[in-house]
């Protein structure tokens, strides 16, 4: 692990934490003013973009410029696309039922509880999950075939997210589909193309850090945590618990892969 600029990276960790905190506190202030905490979901992608941008500035003089530009750009494209998509999806809607249910059980002040349990927690997760984005920008030397494989995996993930989201939006926009389960396109191969896409994006960004043993070691926890969140935490498991009682969902689940894309099973 010699050659990795540990002192500069340690300073970067603090700057990245501050960037994530600023995004989340600004979002919290706006949410309280509007009485709508669902906008924190928009801040998720913005937070990663802020961390990547701050790291790019802080890593000047360290690491490979091509890798720094690439990692920052890939993170920003993913994060801002996600933020725009969530903002459009939530336009004109009230509070997210998840946050309504959580805040209904809040002890004491609802906003203070939301600050602790939603905004600060998400800010901490942004900092943790973004470790590959931070560490990769301090890796010296050019991009290896492994790094380019990471770019390809990132691109696959972004494609699954963007195409899956667009297919679902078109499906919901058709009044004839009201009450029906989306089981077309990518959604016929996996019940969660957007979560699978997220999985690919973050393992791809991790591979961009793997040209440096120290960067790989310090950031391995990040894609592991993201994978657990997507499959066991607030992603797949929570959504399926919400969907399981809908008519037709059990049949859909029986013929469609739960996460990794596979050809639909025939009954």
Helix content: over 70%
Order of helices and strands: HHHHHHHHHHHH
Number of strands: 0
- Profile the largest sheet: none
Q: List the domain count as a whole number.
A: 1
Could you say which structural class the secondary elements and strand pairing correspond to?
mainly alpha
Task: Describe the global form.
Answer: globular
Total helical elements = 12
Rg computed from alpha carbons, rounded to a whole number of angstroms: 19 Å
Protein name: DUF1295 domain-containing protein
Pfam families: DUF1295 (PF06966)
InterPro entries: UstE-like
Keywords: Membrane, Transmembrane, Transmembrane helix
Q: What does this 3D model show about the protein?
A:
Keywords: Membrane, Transmembrane, Transmembrane helix. The protein is 70% helix and 0% strand. By secondary structure, the chain is an all-alpha fold. It has one domain. Helix 2 packs across helix 5 and helix 3 packs parallel to helix 7. The radius of gyration is 19 Å and the shape is globular. The mean pLDDT is 94.
Structure characteristics:
12 helices; mainly alpha; globular; 267 residues
Briefly, what is this?
The protein has 267 residues and is an all-alpha fold. The protein contains twelve helices and no strands.
Topology readout:
Layout: H1 6-34, H2 40-58, H3 65-90, H4 97-104, H5 110-129, H6 131-136, H7 145-173, H8 193-209, H9 213-219, H10 221-231, H11 236-243, H12 249-255
Keywords: Membrane, Transmembrane, Transmembrane helix
InterPro entries: UstE-like (IPR010721)
Protein name: DUF1295 domain-containing protein
């Amino acid at each position: 692990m010699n050659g990795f600029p540990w002192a500069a990276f340690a300073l970067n960790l603090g700057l990245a934490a501050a960037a994530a905190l600023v995004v989340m506190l600004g979002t919290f202030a706006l949410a309280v003013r509007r009485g709508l905490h669902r906008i924190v979901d928009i801040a998720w992608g913005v937070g990663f973009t802020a961390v990547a941008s701050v790291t790019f500035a802080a890593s000047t003089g360290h690491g490979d410029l091509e890798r720094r530009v690439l990692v920052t750009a890939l993170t920003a494209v993913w994060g801002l696309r996600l933020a725009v998509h969530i903002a459009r999806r939530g336009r004109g809607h009230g509070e997210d039922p998840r946050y309504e249910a959580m805040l209904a059980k809040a002890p004491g002040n609802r906003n203070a509880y939301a600050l602790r349990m939603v905004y600060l927690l998400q800010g901490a997760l942004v900092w943790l999950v973004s470790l590959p984005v931070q560490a990769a920008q301090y890796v010296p030397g050019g991009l290896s075939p492994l790094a380019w494989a990471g770019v390809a995996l990132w691109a696959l993930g972004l494609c699954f997210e963007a195409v899956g989201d667009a297919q679902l939006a078109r499906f919901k926009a058709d009044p004839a589909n009201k009450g029906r389960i989306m089981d077309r396109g990518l959604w016929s191969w996996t019940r969660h193309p957007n979560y699978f896409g997220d999985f690919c994006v973050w393992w791809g960004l991790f591979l961009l850090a793997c040209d440096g043993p120290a960067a790989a070691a310090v950031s391995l926890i990040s894609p592991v945590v993201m994978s657990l969140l997507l499959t066991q935490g607030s992603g797949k498991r929570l959504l399926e618990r919400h969907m399981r009682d809908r008519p037709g969902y059990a049949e859909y689940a029986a013929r469609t892969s739960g996460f990794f894309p596979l050809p639909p099973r025939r009954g």
